Write a sequence for this structure.
C-alpha cells in the first residue's frame, strides 16, 4: 500500500480540499495520515474522519509588528523537528500540503527526509506560508492560470481545486423543500462566509422589495446576523449558518451572490452556478479575494461587484444582468480545462512516487 501524509490547517479552507481528496486517494490504494497543529480546526475535522492525526508545534509569520513574531519562529523550528520525527516513523511515499502555517515545517521536513511534497495554492498569488514552502516542493498545483507566472519554472500544475463530491450530488427538490420555495420561480443564494458580510447583508435586505417579485432568496447571513425584524416566508428565508443543507441549497440556486474565497468560487465553478462576487476589500485582507474575482471575471465565470460599489440599486442591476446572461456564464464554466482536480492531483502523487 502507498502511504501519504496530508497537511493543512489554520482555517477550514486549508482542510476541506484535503478531505475532498481522501476518498479518491483511498480508492487509489493510499494509506492516509495527517499532520496538523495541536489545537487547530484541522484537528477536529480530521479526527472526525478516523484518519490518524499527529499534532505539531505551529507558529505564524505576520506581516505586521507583533511581539509574537519574536517567539513564533522557535515554534516553527520545534514543529520542524516534530514533523521530521513523525515522517521518519510513518515513512510516507509522498506529502500533500494544502497550506497554512502548520504546513511549512512539514514540507521542509519532507525535503530533508527526501520525500516528495506536492503543494496546492488556492489563491491567485501564493500566501506567505506557501512562499516559504515552494522551494522544497516537487510540484505546485494552482487554481488560476495567472498563478503560474509566480511559481518556479517546471513546478506549476493548473489543477483547479478539489471539490467535495457530496456538493455535486445535491438535490434541487430537497433544497426547495428546506426553504418552502416554489419550483417555478428562480432562486438566488446569498452567502457571505461563516462570519457573514455586513455590506452584502444590508444591500440584500434593502433590495428585497424589488427582488422578491421575480426571485426567491436564500440568505445565509453569518452567525448572529439574522435580522429578526424580517420574517421568513413569501420567497425569502434567512439562515445564520448552513452545513449539511448547503449541498441542496446550492442545487436549488440559479444564481449565487458570494465573497470570493478561492474554495467557494471553485465550488461554484464545478457546479456551473452563475455568480456575483463581492470580494473582501483590500483594507480587510491581503487582497487575494480581489485578485481571485478578477481572474474569474476575465475567464467569463463571474460578475464582480466591488464592495465599495455595493448598494441595493447596484445589486439589483447585477442580479438582473447575470440572470439574463446566465447561459453565457454556464457555457464559459463548462469550457474550463481544470475541471478534474481530484484526478489530476492523485495522478501527480503517483508520478511523484514513481520519479523518486
Amino acid at each position: 500500500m502507498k502511504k501519504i501524509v496530508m497537511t493543512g490547517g489554520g482555517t477550514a479552507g486549508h482542510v476541506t480540499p484535503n478531505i475532498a481528496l481522501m476518498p479518491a486517494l483511498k480508492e487509489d490504494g493510499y494509506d492516509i495520515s495527517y499532520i496538523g497543529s495541536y489545537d487547530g480546526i484541522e484537528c477536529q475535522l480530521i479526527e472526525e474522519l478516523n484518519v490518524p492525526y499527529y499534532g505539531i508545534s505551529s507558529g505564524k509569520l505576520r506581516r505586521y509588528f507583533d511581539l509574537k513574531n519574536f517567539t513564533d519562529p522557535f515554534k516553527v523550528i520545534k514543529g520542524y523537528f516534530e514533523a521530521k520525527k513523525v515522517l521518519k516513523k510513518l515513512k510516507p511515499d509522498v506529502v500533500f500540503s494544502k497550506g497554512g502555517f502548520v504546513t511549512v515545517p512539514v514540507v521542509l521536513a519532507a525535503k530533508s527526509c527526501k520525500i516528495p511534497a506536492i503543494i496546492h495554492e488556492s489563491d491567485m498569488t501564493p500566501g506567505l506560508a506557501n512562499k516559504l514552502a515552494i522551494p522544497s516542493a516537487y510540484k505546485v498545483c494552482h487554481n488560476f492560470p495567472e498563478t503560474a507566472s509566480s511559481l518556479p519554472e517546471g513546478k506549476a500544475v493548473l489543477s483547479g481545486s478539489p471539490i467535495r463530491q457530496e456538493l455535486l450530488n445535491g438535490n434541487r427538490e430537497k433544497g426547495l423543500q428546506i426553504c418552502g420555495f416554489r419550483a417555478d420561480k428562480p432562486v438566488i443564494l446569498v452567502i457571505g462566509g461563516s462570519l457573514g458580510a455586513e455590506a452584502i447583508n444590508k444591500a440584500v435586505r434593502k433590495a428585497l422589495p424589488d427582488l422578491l417579485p421575480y426571485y426567491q432568496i436564500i440568505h445565509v447571513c453569518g452567525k448572529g446576523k439574522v435580522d429578526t425584524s424580517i420574517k421568513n416566508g413569501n420567497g425569502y428565508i434567512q439562515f445564520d449558518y448552513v452545513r449539511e443543507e448547503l449541498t441542496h441549497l446550492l442545487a436549488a440556486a440559479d444564481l449565487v451572490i458570494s465573497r470570493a474565497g478561492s474554495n467557494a468560487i471553485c465550488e461554484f465553478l464545478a457546479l456551473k452556478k452563475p455568480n456575483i462576487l463581492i470580494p473582501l476589500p483590500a483594507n480587510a485582507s491581503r487582497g487575494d479575494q480581489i485578485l481571485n474575482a478578477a481572474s474569474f471575471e476575465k475567464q467569463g465565470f463571474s460578475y464582480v461587484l466591488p464592495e465599495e460599489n455595493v448598494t441595493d440599486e447596484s445589486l439589483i442591476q447585477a442580479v438582473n444582468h447575470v440572470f439574463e446572461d446566465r447561459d453565457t456564464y454556464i457555457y464559459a464554466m463548462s469550457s474550463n480545462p481544470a475541471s478534474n482536480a481530484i484526478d489530476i492531483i492523485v495522478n501527480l502523487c503517483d508520478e511523484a512516487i514513481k520519479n523518486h
